[in-house]
Design brief:
With 182 residues, the chain is an alpha/beta fold. The protein is built from 7 helices and 8 strands. It has a single domain, classed as Leucine-rich repeat, LRR (right-handed beta-alpha superhelix). It has an 8-stranded mixed β-sheet. It comes from Caenorhabditis nigoni.
């Protein structure tokens, strides 16, 4: 993108950025112009669905690897979460294209040493998706009756730390808020 090279001849020194684009390929030149050592917070959103190559490319940038906080409106899968272990907080959507193994998500997140909190959004099959499915998968106690929220405390194996889950039914999707208790 030659016009961008003329416009941005030197790296930007910013702590936080929000990049919103029609196509994620439009974001890469801007993201790469940001100084990774100073960029702490990244918020990315694209109108077009991302390809696996684009997601991998973002996860491999130094800007992402050195960030502390990330917010993505991008459909990630469980394996993508493995790359989030360095983050203090993150908020992202998980893909609706394949089933989610909620126990695996919990196992992955429980290994994140610096994590303070995260929020995962799951879109499901509207006829059958509800917080009970998530709660059952996490082996949470499920109260009787209609539910909008379920809370669950999970002790991290071989640790005195816990993950506090708040699973919220947001009608067309489910939000899982996770906070680490030290």
């Amino acid at each position: 993108m030659p016009a961008l090279d003329d416009l941005l001849p030197a790296p930007f020194h910013v702590k936080s950025v929000k990049l919103y684009a029609f196509n994620m390929n439009q974001v890469f030149p801007f993201l790469s112009a940001l100084n990774p050592g100073e960029l702490e917070s990244i918020n990315l959103e694209a109108i077009e669905a991302l390809s696996r190559d684009q997601i991998s490319r973002i996860l491999e940038t130094e800007q992402f690897k050195q960030a502390k906080h990330v917010q993505w409106k991008i459909g990630l899968n469980e394996n993508d979460l493995l790359k989030f272990s360095h983050l203090e907080s993150f908020k992202c959507d998980l893909t609706y294209l394949e089933p989610v193994d909620f126990q695996r998500v919990r196992e992955i997140i429980s290994t994140f040493e610096v994590l303070e909190s995260c929020e995962l959004i799951f879109y499901g099959d509207f006829d059958r998706f509800c917080i009970r499915i998530v709660a059952r998968a996490l082996e949470a106690e499920i109260p009787f009756g209609p539910l909008k929220t379920i809370k669950h405390l999970y002790q991290i194996p071989e640790s005195n730390e816990y993950l506090e889950f708040e699973i919220v039914d947001d009608e067309y999707y489910c939000t899982m808020k996770i906070r680490k208790i030290r």
